[in-house]
Structures are given as structure tokens and as C-alpha cells.
Hints:
By secondary structure, the protein is α/β, with parallel strands linked by helices. It contains 10 helices and 13 strands. Strand 4, helix 4 (about 95) and strand 5 form a beta-alpha-beta unit.
Amino acid sequence: MTRHNIYALKYAGPFTSSGAFLMWLKNWDKTVKRNYYFWVITGDHAPVVVDAGVSPELAAERALGGYVSPADMLKRMGLEAEEIRHVILTHLHWDHASGIALFPNAAVYIQEREYRFWLEDPIAKRPPFRHVSDEVSLTYLKRLKEAGNLRLLNGDAEILPGITCLLAPGHSVGLQAVAVETAEGTAILGSDCAHVFKNYTEDWPSSLITDLVAWMKSYDKLKNYASLPNLLFPGHDVALNEKYPFVAEDITKLA
């Protein structure tokens, strides 16, 4: 069986907010930190990138603190964005998808229900959803689909040996996590199914909820899928950058 390594690349942050942003309706009086990441999986095949970060243009528009282009982050691992052949988008919120044009030669994997919501459902144009999306990257994905380079998935699917996309809705309509076979067992890149580890350990989601019932079922699914609790990784916890083996500046090895 193919064994992979997983790396977290911090491309922006830290940012501070009320604790209620990371723990839904709790800890209003606390100030907490979060980082923005994307991930790289290496193994017997070409590297796989999970999420695309933020484009330089949108980072400048939003004055994103501590920002480094995902393309420049990859160079710290000896990789070039133009050489990446596989990108998994966990969901289409701006901080996970707006850098997708940085990977012009990649096949892009996304859940079909996620794509169709953001591109075809008029509800996605309403203010709460427009606030967390990016029109430029959505237009780019539409062109990718027309060119045949968008892989729309319907539920769980192994895209490469030892790398499986898992439908895990709740935070978004069609969020997907990524199960990765590693030397330590099956690890899960859960993206924003949890913003921080406490979301999993306390069985309590973060904010930006599309479907709370679906979210709780996704927790059950991902916890059961991971070989060990410590192999279930959240999307924004500062611990990903601070408590795992150093690889390069703002890059750590998770498994």
C-alpha cells in the first residue's frame, strides 16, 4: 500500500477573533488566533495539493496579514505550482479556493454538489454566501469545467492510490475531507469540518454553519475513518504550525 507524507503550509496569519468564531456560540469573551493553510501530500505519485489558498490579488484587496503566495510557499519545498498535476478543493470559500489559478496544469477535484451550489444556485448570490466566496475563482472553475479539467465527485471517491475524498457537509453544502494512508495509519485532512482541534475533541462545530445536523454526522464519519484521534486534522489551528516537525519556514510535517 502506498504510504504518504502530509505537510501543512501556512500562507497567512495569525488572525485574531472572538472565541465564538471558532467555537459556535461559545467563548464570546475570549480572543483566539487562527492561521490560514493549504496542504501537500507526497508519495509514490506526483505531489497532491489540498486547497489553493488565496491569490495575490485577493490577498492585497483584503489586506491579508502575513500573506505569502501559495506558489512561493511551494518553492520552500522545492516544488513549482506549474508542475502540480492534482489539486483537491475541500470547499469553495475564498480562503481555500481563490488561489486555484496558481495551478494552471492541475486537474481539480471537487464535490459536484459544492460546485453546483456556488455556480448555479441563486442562494449563493445572497449576502451571507457572497461574503465567503470569490467570484474570480468561481469563474475560473467554470472555465476549467468547460475545458474538461474539473473532476466533479459524487460522494466518497479514491482519486489516487491511498488518497480518498470524503463527503463531509455541514460547514458548506459539499465540503470534502481527504483521507490519506500514512505510515501512522489513515490520516484525515478535515479542512473546515473543524477550524481547531477543540471542535473535534469537544464535539462542537465552529461558525459558518450551512447544515448543523449534517455537520454532526460528518464528525462521526471522520472520527470513525481516522486510524487515531491525533490523525484528524482541522483547517485553521495554530498548532499545525507550532507543534509539528519543522520542514521549512511556516511548513510542518503532520504525518
